[in-house]
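Per your request, structure below.
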């Protein structure tokens, strides 16, 4: 983990309401593993005391890239960043995705912004597989050319049918699971809304497969001190059969069988 003063190298519209921010971070960039995140101190507003977590989209050549959308005052302030501006970044943080097992076909499942968190895994995986991207509308689908350029098959669904097949991403996943795969065993890697993650995990458990889920919880410190991002996991040695982990330290990636889901998730 490094605390680095990074410099904005590029900042541009990426797709829909999303932006791509490239930061020169020569000490931090070589350390990033797939699925990890960075904590960024935003330049404004003045009362934005807490850093904001962002999944690392790309890392290499002394730079990291993130994708973001302005959804509040903090991220709205990022829209004004220009090349040469300096930001304080902390990272890489968390435990990311393991490498896909050699005897499986890797299956990526992403909702919206979750596509960015899966790119490094797709880039570094020893074998290519299939990626399922879902969103409410076409503007929520990101990175398709990037994944296809790596040799991945990408299947897109949108709830309004404006891009790809109409429906939810799990509809496309179910159709693929029903296909003849020649005995290949899927291994899932997913990032997106909790409902989608739970659905992917349920399918993995039913099929006897493995699913690695990148959990999303509100974070304060990002380093495990504030305990705002805790998640229940199964723990046979603990009272009640469960215990807490911190998503920013023990996560964000957890195997689906470890997770204790709350009602409504």
């Amino acid at each position: 983990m490094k605390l680095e003063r990074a410099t904005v190298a590029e900042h541009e519209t990426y797709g829909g309401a999303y932006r791509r921010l490239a930061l020169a971070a020569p000490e931090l960039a070589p350390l990033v593993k797939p699925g990890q995140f960075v904590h960024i101190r935003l330049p404004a507003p003045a009362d934005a005391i807490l850093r904001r977590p962002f999944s690392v989209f790309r890392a290499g050549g002394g730079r990291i890239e993130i994708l973001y959308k302005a959804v509040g005052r903090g991220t709205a302030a990022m829209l004004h960043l220009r090349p040469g501006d300096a930001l304080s970044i902390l990272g890489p943080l968390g435990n990311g995705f393991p490498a896909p097992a050699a005897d499986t076909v890797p299956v990526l499942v992403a909702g919206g912004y979750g596509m960015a968190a899966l790119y490094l895994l797709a880039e570094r995986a020893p074998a290519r597989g299939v990626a399922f991207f879902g969103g409410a509308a076409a503007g929520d689908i990101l990175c398709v050319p990037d994944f296809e350029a790596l040799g991945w098959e990408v299947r897109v669904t949108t709830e309004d049918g404006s891009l790809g097949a109409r429906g939810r991403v799990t509809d496309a996943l179910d159709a693929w699971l029903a296909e003849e795969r020649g005995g290949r065993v899927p291994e899932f890697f997913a990032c997106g809304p909790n409902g989608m993650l739970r659905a992917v995990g349920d399918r993995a458990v039913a099929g006897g497969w493995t699913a690695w889920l990148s959990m999303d919880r509100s974070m304060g410190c990002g380093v495990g001190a504030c305990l705002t991002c805790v998640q229940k996991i199964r723990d046979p040695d603990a009272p009640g059969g469960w215990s807490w982990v911190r998503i920013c330290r023990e996560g964000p990636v957890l195997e689906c069988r470890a997770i204790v889901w709350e009602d409504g998730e």
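The first strand starts at residue 2 and ends at 15.

Regards,
D.
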